[in-house]
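Table S2 (text version). Query chain:
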Amino acid sequence: MTDVLEGAHIAGCRIESVAGRGGMGIVYRATQLSLGRPVALKLIAPEHAADSDFRERFQRESRMAAAIDHPNVIPVYEAGEEDGRLYIVMRWVEGTDLHKELRAHGRVEHERAAAIINQVAGALDAAHTAGLVHRDVKPANVLLSGDHAYLADFGLTRLASAETNVTTGGHFLGTVDYMAPEQFKPGPSDARADVYALGCVLYAALTGRPPFIRETVPQTMLAHLHEPPPVAIGAGPEFNRVLARALAKNPADRFPSAGDFGRATLAAAQGQSVTEEERSVARGAAAPTIRRDPGVWAAPDPDVPDSAHDTSPLRTYRARKRPRLLLLGAATVLATGAIAVAAIPGGGDEIPPPGSPVSDAQAERLARQFASAYSNEDAAKISRLLTSDAQRVFPTDRQRGRAEVVDVYREQFAESPQSEFVLEGLEAEGGAVGRASARYRTGATTGTMTWDVIIERGKPRITMILAVPDV
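Corresponding structure-token output:
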């Protein structure tokens, strides 16, 4: 996006200087000519402004954001379109942001951190009550003016997609270091994703770094999805208990509202307990949702021999017949270390009753069945494993629905055969969400694969497949 020249007039404002840049556009320090007051003028990137659906949602959700009257929400003065450029005019806040403060000082004193989080939590409660989900809560969006905190950019990140956590271009919404596990999956997320993100912000404020920072984006995503919340060294047991709940993988296990989390954080800083009753305040699109993945149950794969179900640890499984790397496709994708994600049902020897936990054997078996079908380049068998609305998602690519997904596999299988596909050290763990993971090897390419397995409508299904090539 090209910078607007200093002194230019846009939306009744005179541009003074560039204040910041982000994925949605550029923020300028400007002067509102009618009142002579300083304002923050955000110009939306042209690629978003060119989308008619985006423009409509921008106008609608900007009005919703402007209607939020809360002392910790940056007030929106005006939003609209001028000469094909979408803009939003907001209060200018003199001060800094939490990201800059952490870079300058490393971490924040405990009581100050709790006060900041509680203020941001109040802002989130106000937004959630209005039906807005922020989806990009991070230190850079927490503006600080002395002891007063503001949450910025309401309504903007939410606009990038009305129905999903992935844009039409395949990019995830939000900042990976502060994203909730459900935001890496297809489908909507609700107010509880903001609670998780605010938990990440608290962890960063107390320690100086996000909770799941890793060397690569794929590794960070896997950590959010699978690793338990790390202990915030030096924060004490009270803060760590609060963090463990805010950073729960299952949204239902988190605080029901951001305000509840904020009050618990204040209590932790003061060594007290919270006496107020917890409650959810989210309404409309921000209200808690139940993720569903309807589909069909497939019988066990007859091509997988009984010997393949050995439960001994650190075993190796070889899927032969013109093997090909699961979901990774072109060499350019391998080179960039992209993550592949798919929503796929599986099979088992019996149909378990509704609500049953996934067994170790079921999690392992489903991983082997899909690997076998893929390694044999059998698109028809893959089709039988897929739900009607199965999805396959890359950071730069997405397919929705069985036919579209299978077409991609057929294209991959039409390419020249690759080396033997091998799973090494396959391990599985049952539970409400079963998990199988293994190292994979095909030719000179190696990496890690993880399968999440759930019982849904009484049937075991693979709900998530992650493939992370070694760099």
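Notes on Table S2: DSSP finds 13 helices and 18 strands in the chain. Residues 110-129 form the longest helix (20 residues).
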